[in-house]
Please model this.
Amino acid sequence: MKILTGNDLKTGAVVWWDGQTWSLHVDHAVDVGDEAEPILGREEAARRVNASYAIDAERDAQGKVRPAHIKDRIRALGPTVRPDLTLKPADPEAGNWVI
Amino acid sequence: MYRYDQYDQAMVETRVAEFRDQTRRRLEGKLSEDQFKPLRLQNGLYLQLHAYMLRVAVPYGTLSSAQMHMLADIADKYDRGYGHFTTRQNIQYNWIRLEDAPDILADLAKVEMHAIQTSGNCIRNISSDQFAGASAGELVDPRPYAELLRQWSSFHPEFLALPRKFKIAVIASETDRAAMRLHDIGIRIVENPSADGAGEIGAAFYVGGGMGRTPMIGPLIRDFVPLDQLITYAEACLRVYNRYGRRDNKFKARIKILVHELGAEEYKRQVEGEFVHLLEQGVEPPIAELERIKAFFADPPFDPDAGDELDLSDPDFKLWVERNTHPHKQKGYISATISLKPVGGIPGDASAEQMHLMADLAREHSFDECRVTHAQNIVLPHVKKDELYGLWQKLEEAGLGTANLDQVGDIIACPGLDYCSLANARSIPLAQKISQRFAENGKGDALGELKLKISGCINACGHHHAGHIGILGVDRKGTENYQLLLGGSEAEDTSLGKITGPGFDEDGVVDAVETTADVYLRERKDGERFLDTYRRIGMEPFKEALYG
Model:
């Protein structure tokens, strides 16, 4: 699947395109198929996102979205060395998802 | 230390106002990202993996207590309670909001700090010896010359659009603690080596060093430049680079490539020609300006009667003194290094609370001054020996008393793929695992001086080329892989590490470092550091143990 990501213009937070707007959670990302370019063009112009791009991802057995590249998995979760600063600070196993 | 005059302050405040307006226009959509990006980068604001990152300049690594307190306040108020001290003696914040950036710069300006020229193809922060002005054995304090270079290079119109970024280090000791020959220009303040020099002080210029994808050790271009021609010679070096440096290929754009391709002799010939021309132009600042700057770096009011003995009956304190202190030029004083490398910690990270504490300790024990080291630690340069035990106890209590300077646990590591958008692999987890491994197996204490440096990509912010043991993270088909290098040094015996062979995965490279250390422990002769043994026996015994 192709999903869209970028950083929130004001805050810099990593965001994912959920079909309507930008979510902090990669699991909300939707497959945009061949529509990446027009969506990104529109959203950048509207200043809702910055440095956006399309990436490959897949759904795992539990239906969770998993970016293909480790860099985007780290973006999705947060720094593996500071679990307290990730989106899942209470889950000690969250870092394993990145690797 | 140097204090801003009205011109410095006006320049910084004007830049804050300018950037506030630029940020407003970006948020209102009047500037595109393509238009805004070079403007934010000129103010040290990057977009990294998780957020905007702000890199703040710490000129030659020197900070007052008030400045350190402000860095802590910024970490608390605008970031997530911590900052990361870098191998360029700067500090970076990882979780900055664009809309807050102008306010942060305004706060920095209140304590005579900024983020100008911490990015982009310009002359970056001038770095120096962390023991400058304090160390026994130093010729002079190099910081007045670093400050003069800072003033010359700030907003220098000719050098704001160089072929590539440009880094300068200035030292004044035979011992190199600033990786001087691995800079675009390395300057060593020296006595005139000629027979009739009669003790005259000047500068030796090494040009064309660097790390990155093509590491090179800067050759000596001139062994003596009189101090009243220092800026003129630097300008000549830059002008030749600016004219002929490769703008067509980013990977060949650093001055090291120009010097290498021209040859040091030809580069020097061109610099000397430009130098003669510039001498006629009169670009050198008046010597009175250098004297004005020097006055800011006068010795603090040392107590001439300070006691010179240390009570080393506490074995933990004794170990810390042996590893983390440095002889001072003034009887009764010593320089103390606060390690930001606790076992299993993140190299260079300090919480706001730790920064506040270090600022307070600098005020109480070190004439209001501290230093950032290129090895990502903090120095209190002027501590009375009588007060050292009390200082150490406070550090211990705060978890800042780790006795590991230049040991295997004192690892330099870049932010790597945990934070950096350029990285190919994570650096920090390796540093954590290696320091834990050697703490748990007890071998760390036996190893002595062993400088381990980790970079998460070829840009080498973690100085892996210059590690006695270096590790370079690469991307191998989407997974992290780590190359091991041996034999590098950033010190006065500068050398570049060589790759051992095929890379390792994350756990494999931790094992490989231990295997490498075991070879050293087996092969070393009395008094040899790891680096000495490697240089004596060569790569083969290590390769045999790693791959045989």
Summary: Chain A is about 25% helix and 25% strand. The longest helix of chain A spans residues 36-45.
